[in-house]
């Protein structure tokens, strides 16, 4: 995480996968590296460090929201732009990411409007897959949940990485320079949008 002035955009990167060797986690880490290299303060968060039960209304009524849901929400509040990378599962996105969104959307701190943490941040989306579409079908579903379900502002620009098994070099960078530039462009647009929204 890079230190930031209060007026700087601050980007949070995370992947909708807890798997250690996840291509999407590697892409999220790379995104944070690219942001830092371009003087954009960033943080990478691993959802494996924030385990939560599957959302259940009775569980919430009996025990409240999980501590890790509060931690993640506070992490989101500390950033002005959120970059989400998710695998595609059966033409949708991961249950882990959906569960994370569901829990956080139910937390309303004192003085907050409903879903305020989503509606006061800018989001960008990316995906990686071993196939030729790069997870594009899942991105459609994530966009619908964020825009229609939470009222979030999601950039129209997004990044999909096909054939991810062959895409990374040993240092975690993309072998294809054009793909690197495409990813960098989305990150820079997210930073600019976050600066406008919170400037």
Automatic annotation (TrEMBL):
Per the record, GO CC terms?
cytosol
Q: Which InterPro entries match?
A: Flavoprotein-like_sf (IPR029039), FMN_Rdtase-like_dom (IPR005025), NAD(P)H-dep_reductase (IPR050712)
Known Gene3D superfamilies for this protein? 3.40.50.360
Report any Pfam family annotated for this entry.
Answer: FMN_red
Instruction: Tell me the SUPFAM superfamilies matching this sequence.
Output: Flavoproteins
Where is the NADPH-dependent FMN reductase-like domain positioned along the sequence? 10-164
Molecular-function GO terms, alphabetical: FMN binding; oxidoreductase activity
Query: What's the protein here called?
Result: NAD(P)H-dependent FMN reductase
In which organism is this protein found? Hyphomicrobium facile
């Amino acid at each position: 995480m890079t230190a930031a002035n209060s007026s700087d955009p601050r980007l949070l990167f995370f992947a909708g996968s807890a798997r250690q060797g996840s291509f999407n986690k590697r892409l999220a880490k790379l995104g944070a590296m690219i942001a830092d290299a371009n003087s954009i303060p960033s943080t990478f968060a691993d959802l494996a460090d924030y385990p939560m039960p599957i959302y259940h209304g009775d569980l919430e009524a009996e025990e409240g929201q999980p501590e890790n849901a509060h931690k993640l929400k506070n992490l989101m509040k500390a950033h002005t732009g959120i970059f989400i990378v998710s695998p595609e599962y059966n033409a949708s996105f991961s249950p882990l990411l959906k569960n994370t969104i569901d829990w956080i959307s139910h937390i309303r701190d004192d003085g907050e409007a409903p879903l305020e943490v989503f509606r006061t941040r800018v989001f960008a989306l990316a995906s990686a897959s071993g196939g030729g579409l790069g997870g594009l079908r899942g991105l459609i579903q994530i966009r619908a949940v964020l825009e229609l379900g939470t009222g979030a502002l999601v950039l129209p620009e997004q990044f999909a990485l096909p054939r991810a098994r062959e895409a990374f070099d040993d240092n975690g960078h993309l072998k294809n320079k054009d793909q690197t530039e495409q990813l960098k462009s989305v990150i820079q647009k997210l930073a600019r949008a976050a600066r406008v929204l919170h400037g």
